[in-house]
Amino acid sequence: MGRSPCxxxxxxxxxxxxxxxxxxxxxxxxxxxxxxxxxxxxxxxxLRCGKSCRLRWINYLRPDLKRGNFTEQEDEFIIKLHGxxxxxxxxxxxxxxxxTDNEIKNYWNTHxxxxxxxxxxxxxxxxxxxxxxxxxxxxxxxxxxxxTAVQTIRYTKPAAASEAADxxxxxxxxxxxxxxxxxxxxxxxxxxxxxxxISLPHSPxxxxxxxxxxxxxxxxxxxxxxxxxxxxxxxxxxxCSCSRAMAQTTNVFRYHRPxxxxxxxxx
DNA sequence: AACAATCGCAACCGCCAGCCC
DNA sequence: GGGGCTGGCGGTTGCGATTGT
Length: 267
Known about the structure:
Blueprint: H1 19-32, H2 40-44, H3 50-61, H4 72-85, H5 89-94, H6 101-118, H7 129-139, H8 144-156, H9 159-170, H10 179-189, E1 196-199, H11 204-209, E2 225-226, H12 227-231, H13 242-247, E3 253-256
Parallel strand pairs: 1-3
Antiparallel strand pairs: 1-2
Helix pairs in contact: 4-9, 7-8, 8-10
The protein binds a DNA duplex through residues 3-4, 6, 14-17, 36-38, 49-52, 54-56, 58-60, 87-90, 101-103, 105-107, 109-111.
C-alpha cells in the first residue's frame, strides 16, 4: 500500500535546477500564473515533480524575493518571532517580506542558533542555558514527566522567556509563567489552548502605555491582544476564537508586550 | 598543493490538513 | 461521512564552497 507518489519519479529530473529549467518555469508562471502545481511541469515542458517546481519558484525564482544577507534587525525580529511561534518558519517568513521559510530555516540553523548559544540562551526555549540545566535537574525522579509537560507548554509560549532574557537591556520585564502556574494550567486543562494573546507586562512602564485597553483580572493594567489578530495570521473572515478564549482567561497563555506600535522591531 | 573538515544552502522527503467529489 | 488529491510545511540530506591542517 502506501502513498501514491506525487509524480512519476522515473521520468523526472532531480537535483540542481538548470538555467533552462528556471527560464521555462518563470516564463510559464509569468504567462499563466501559479496554478495547479501537479500539472504545471507537463504544461511547462519540464521533467520535474510539481512539488519541486513549487519549491523552486517559491524559494528561488519569485521576483519579490529579497536575496542577500540578513540584517541585524531581521536577525532580532526572527529571534523574537521564533520565541513566539517556535519552528513555524512559514509564519515567520510571512512577517518578513522577501524572505522564504526555507531561507529563514536555514539561516536559523546556521547562524542564529549559534548566536543565541553565544548569548547563553537555549535556541529552542529561549531560556538561559543555566536555568534550563537547573530545571533539568529538578526533573529527575517522579516529577520528570510533569516537568517535561511544563517545558512543552513553555515552548508554546516562550516569548516571555526571551523577553525576560532581554529584559536587562530592554528595560521591561518579561512575565514568565512560574513553573507552578504552568503546571496548574496543564493540570487543569489537559489540553493546550494554542490561542495566543498579548497583554501588558506587569512592569511600571506598562501602566503608562495603557490606553483604553480592557482591564485584565489581577493586574489592573493589562491589555489583552490576540496574537493571531495582531500579527495578521488570521483574517477577519476566519473568525479567530480570541474573544472566546479571553472570556475564559484562566487557561489562556498570554504574550506580554508593550502596546506601543513597532513593538516587534528589534531593540 | 593536497587532503580533510566544516559550512551554507538548495533541494528532497514524508507527513498533514483542507478541499472536493 | 470518508476517501483521494493537492498544496503546504518542517525536518533532513546532499553537495559545492570555503577554511583549516
